[in-house]
Amino acid sequence: MPIKATEITDKLNGEWQVQLFETCFKAPIPFCFGCLCPCCMVCLQRKEILEIVGEPYVCCGGMFPCGPLGSPQNENCLYLEGCCCTGCAISANRYIIQTRFNKRNTACDDCILWAVCIANLLVCIGQFVCEDMPEGLEECVDCATMIVDGCMLAQHDVELKHIKSNGYQGPASNLVAALPPLQQQMISQGKPGGMVAGAAVIGAGGAGMAGYK
After folding, report:
1. Which residues contact 181 (CB under 8 A, 6 or more apart)?
2. Helix (H, G, I), strand (E, B) or coil at 17
3. I need a labelling partner for 9 at 20 to 30 A (CA). Which of 3, 119, 179, 183 fits?
4. Residues in a beta bridge with 200
5. β pairing state of 199-200 and 195-196
């Protein structure tokens, strides 16, 4: 789902390595994996993200800071999240990538993501208020959702490979300041472990994070 808070989106200016709907032919293997087995891919991807940023596991990336969902949990809970709340898990991966690695959605990305969200919502409402739903409508929406999920996961996969090869030194301080308190806390607990040519990166970014610890 698109990031809604204007104060956050205004700080995001980085471009994705691959555009959302280019992934099907520029990253076909991750795209197919994301389409056919999103539960598995989203879990593997979150573990990869947490390994890079060094943050503790918080359910759904801390997007729903209510009760135990707003505090670090055993990382094995990730598998429950990935299987039972796959859509939320994919959105959480995207949220973490965008806010830690400074990646913005294009206007086209936002339109696609909102369209899929609204289509799913309308189908859910229609199932309650309409006795005769058009045949095949739900399947069409499910298919569109599967494709978009596959595109997002593949886009994330390409981005993570790029970050691991170039290193990660923590998010920009002005971006961190715009995030909700829980996100700032998660970042402050992180120990960035980005890799460059197989070596750990320790630099100015890590020093910049000290102010949040």
Report:
1. none
2. coil
3. 119
4. 195
5. antiparallel
